[in-house]
Amino acid sequence: MAQRKERIDRGIKVRSDDVFVLTSWREMLYLAAPRVVPVVALFVLGLVAGPYWERVLISTCMFALLAISWDLLNSAGMVSLGQALFFGVGAYIAGTLNHYLGLPPGLTIPIATLGGGVLCTVALLPVLRLRGIYFAMVTLILPMMIERVIEATKIFGGTEGISGLSTLGSNNLEFWLAAVAVFVALFGFRRMMGTDYGLLLKGISDNDRAVMSAGMNIYHYKAQALFMSSAVGAFAGAFMTHAYQFVGMPVFALDYSMIPIASVAVGGMGTLAGPMLGSFILVPLSELLRGLGGLRVVIYAVILVVFTVGLPEGIFHYLSRKYNQFERWVGVER
Amino acid sequence: MLEGTLIYGFINSVILMLVALGFSVTFGISGVANFAYGALYIMTGYLSWLGLHSLGLPYWVAAPLAVVVTGAVAAMIYWFILLRVRGLVVSEVIATFGVGLAILELFRSLGFIGFEYTLPPIIDASVMIGDTYVDAQRLCIVATGILLAAFLWFFTHYTKTGLAFRGIAQDERTALTLGINGDKVAALSVAFGAGYGALAALVILPLGTIAVNEGYNVLVNALAVCIVGGLGSTVGIIVASFLIGFAQILTSTYLETSWMMIVSLVAILAILVIKPSGLFGHQKQLEERI
What we know:
Chain A: Its main location: membrane. Chain A: The chain crosses the membrane at residues 29-50, 56-73, 85-101, 107-125, 132-150, 175-193, 225-247, 259-285, 297-319. Chain A: One of its GO terms (cellular component) is plasma membrane. Chain A: It is found in: Cell membrane. The structure holds two protein chains of two kinds. Chain A is mostly helical. Chain A has helices at residues 11-16, 25-48, 51-75, 83-101, 105-124, 133-153, 171-194, 196-206, 208-213, 218-244, 255-267, 273-288, 295-310, 314-324; strands at residues 3-9, 162-163, 246-247, 325-331. Chain A has a domain at 61-253. Chain A has a two-stranded antiparallel ribbon. A two-stranded antiparallel sheet of chain A has the order 2-3. In chain B, strands 1-2 form a two-stranded antiparallel ribbon. The longest helix of chain B is centred in the N-terminal third of the chain and has 29 residues, at 2-30. Chain B has twelve helices and two strands. By secondary structure, chain B is mainly α. Classes of the chains: A mainly alpha, B mainly alpha.
């Protein structure tokens, strides 16, 4: 007998996207598990990891934040090739405030987060009207240019950078803060994208003309999305500055633009959870490949191309489909 | 002083034009923004260096071979990668950028850094123009620039392939009904653009060393010229390269050499604020861009 594969959404998935009538522990577990398991897993990992891998987890969390901010920006129709801009601006604000004014990290990180968000938004305001590759071109160029300016003017320590900044405290504390920050950003932005406001942002990315026709000022909303995204990026930069106790020109390096995009490509676009999953795969992987030196970037680039071309939906979409749907073979009548 | 500035400004403008032509040809025809352009440019340099020093080929074999290989690599990038994501702008940009990054960083990790990676100049001499010494290589660049620009014009106006290029550029669907194979033409245009970049690399790279970072600079310069001039407009590219070229030389004369790259950014930002479609951009591009 001929057969075909049938795919059905789980009943609970169909209902629970909007209507919450949970009638059993099983249903509640079904919904809660995908949220709770990663959170618990990360904190347990942090407890069992040694000092070295704890540092790796911290930087993984920061790359996850950058990837989330990339995805948020992309959800509003702005493709960035320069997350390093946000990262670097945040890092430099925190570094200089700490070095020259002697502010403690408890102050510099919030100031860098907000200030970096404002600065990057203002810097990109003139090009907010652009979209697609034009916006990408400008964001690609900006971090490179800032690198050159710092090199030419020798401000903020020039090519040497500033070292000997104050730390956040112990490794453990840094890890807990980083993990909390990632989950706040992840769940906060996911909730936001589910509201009407998030729908508006997605609308801008899908068809900005239609959103304009509906009487919305899309530049207003684009600027808001830009601010949120750059603030998250700047937070990651400020945090890393204090974790490494160093700020210098490498914060504008291509790594900080490339790895988030690679994470998004691996994890899957538009879900915010996908990018995080992607960076939790890629960053530890790159730690394992540390012996390869410069070849790591090549491997990243190849992974990026392979996933963009071969598996554009990414891992997260695949996993969530497998989780939310039944698949079974059914007979076909001739 | 002024005369020297003018002459070197002119030469720098031609260099920019050469660099931007290849990028613009590809984008203007197939609509693919080839972010691997800088990498292909530098790859030509390394390939001809390898041909000269590792294989021991004479210059007139190694250089054309490098151009052909670069063109073939570009065509392969289109055929195996871009063809699958054509029309998805984000994927196009990320894929080409990833390929470029892979090529450049591969050279870097293989140890292609240092001052020994130089190409021989085509003519090793210098000429006196007025009171200024100009080496023959720079005059060679000017000649190549004029030749390539003229060839592009003749090619797109008087050959079948060139007309097919323009057909695809203007309206792909109509071109398809006339029996033009869109994918083949687009692949050809990517290879053609890379070939232009490769020729530019052969004449420009002897001025300095072949360095991986130059690949990123070339991409930025090409983007700057194309954005300021209006993407896809050859006249715009020539005008924009002269504007930026002279501005760069003036900055390096009166300020510092390290400020030269800043000029490109200022030019881009200024033009995007004032006239986003570029100096000679068309209405259609304006619509796509904003």
